[in-house]
């Protein structure tokens, strides 16, 4: 019971409390205390996102765009040497640390999602994505998305996964996947290209308020690169402008990530 109570404090407050171990969390899940006692206020982030890793450079990252304000600080989570995790639709940012902790202990992405969702009363409202440093990825789509969802889905490819809800249609996800696969450059370049492609395909049908990117590299504490647009009328393009103006080792050879910035929807990833 003590472990479950500590878990409750950490997840609902996100503030000072004793650290919850992976073992404590899994014990709480197994005893069904997580699903029975954790009551979260619905927070809905209709959005599209991508998680990815570069297995050759030990870099992982995630990028997102949405009508939800400051979405880049809510949906994507990355940890150096571990992987990336996105929580959206009825999102639950408190899961991020636990998901990445489980991944760091050698759990497969599918096992992590199973642990998180097993006794979650809102599991049919969640959309999740997770990838480890070997490039193993898993998605979970909502079975009962809200009426505003219109279209939701996901696509997983070589060392990446794209997912979204509240979208204008399926082309948003497919455009992201194509851009990520076809773009020549670093992982950060390819994340930015994927986000632009999803936006050009229509993105979130409600608008373009916010966007963000987080990248981590093994051996470097915290985020290696983080870039946000918290409120804008054209958030992805504003994020792309910031990215083009940025001087950072995470950037590669992609021409779209360089100045002068050209606002155009890509026909290829180059």
* CATH third-level topology of the largest domain: Glutamine Phosphoribosylpyrophosphate, subunit 1, domain 1
> In the residues, how many domains can be counted?
2
What is the arithmetic mean of pLDDT?
Answer: 85
Task: Supply the CATH class of the largest domain.
Answer: Alpha Beta
Q: Uncertain segments of ≥5 residues (pLDDT<50)?
A: 1-20, 28-42
Question: Major sheet: order of its strands?
Answer: 8-9-2-3-10-11
Number of helical segments with 4 or more residues: 8
Beta-strand content: 15-25%
Fraction of helical residues: 25-40%
| Biggest β-sheet description | 6 strands, antiparallel
CATH architecture of the largest domain: 4-Layer Sandwich
In short:
With about 270 residues, the chain is α+β, with helices and mostly antiparallel strands. It contains 8 helices and 11 strands.
Task: Describe this entry's structure for a reader.
- By secondary structure, the protein is an alpha+beta fold.
- It has two domains: 1-39, no CATH class; 43-257, 4-Layer Sandwich (Glutamine Phosphoribosylpyrophosphate, subunit 1, domain 1).
- Helix content is 30%, strand content 24%.
- The protein contains eight helices and eleven strands.
- The protein has helices at 2-13, 22-30, 33-37, 95-104, 109-117, 171-182, 187-200, 235-245; strands spanning 44-45, 47-54, 59-66, 76-79, 83-90, 126-132, 137-140, 153-157, 160-164, 210-217, 225-229.
- The strands form two sheets. The protein has a six-stranded antiparallel β-sheet, covered by helices on one side.
- α4 packs antiparallel against α5, α6 packs antiparallel against α7 and α7 (187-200) runs antiparallel to α8 (235-245).
- The chain is globular and about 50 Å long.
- The N and C termini lie far apart (55 Å).
């Amino acid at each position: 019971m003590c472990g479950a109570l500590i878990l409750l404090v950490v997840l609902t407050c996100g503030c000072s409390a004793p650290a919850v171990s992976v073992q404590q969390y899994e014990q709480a899940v197994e005893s069904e205390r997580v699903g029975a006692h954790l009551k979260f206020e619905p927070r809905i982030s209709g959005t599209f996102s991508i998680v990815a890793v570069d297995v050759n450079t030990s870099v992982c990252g995630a990028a997102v765009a949405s009508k939800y304000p400051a979405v880049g600080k809510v949906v994507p989570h990355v940890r150096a040497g571990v992987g990336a995790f996105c929580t959206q639709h009825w999102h639950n940012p408190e899961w991020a640390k636990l998901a990445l902790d489980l991944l760091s202990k050698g759990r497969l992405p599918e096992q992590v999602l199973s642990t998180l969702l097993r006794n979650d009363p809102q599991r049919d409202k969640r959309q999740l994505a997770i990838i480890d440093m070997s490039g193993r990825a898993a998605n979970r789509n909502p079975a009962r998305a809200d009426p505003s969802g219109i279209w939701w889905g996901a696509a997983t490819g070589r060392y990446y996964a794209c997912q979204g809800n509240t979208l204008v249609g399926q082309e948003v996800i497919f455009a992201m996947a194509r851009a990520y696969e076809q773009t020549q450059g670093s992982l950060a370049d390819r994340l930015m290209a994927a986000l632009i492609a999803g936006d050009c395909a229509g993105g979130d049908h409600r608008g373009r308020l916010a966007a963000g990117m987080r990248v981590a590299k093994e051996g470097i504490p915290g985020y290696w690169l983080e870039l946000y647009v918290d409120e804008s009328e054209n958030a992805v393009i504003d994020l792309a402008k910031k990215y083009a103006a940025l001087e950072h080792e995470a950037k590669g050879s992609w021409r779209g990530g360089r100045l002068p910035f050209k606002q155009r929807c890509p026909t290829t990833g180059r």
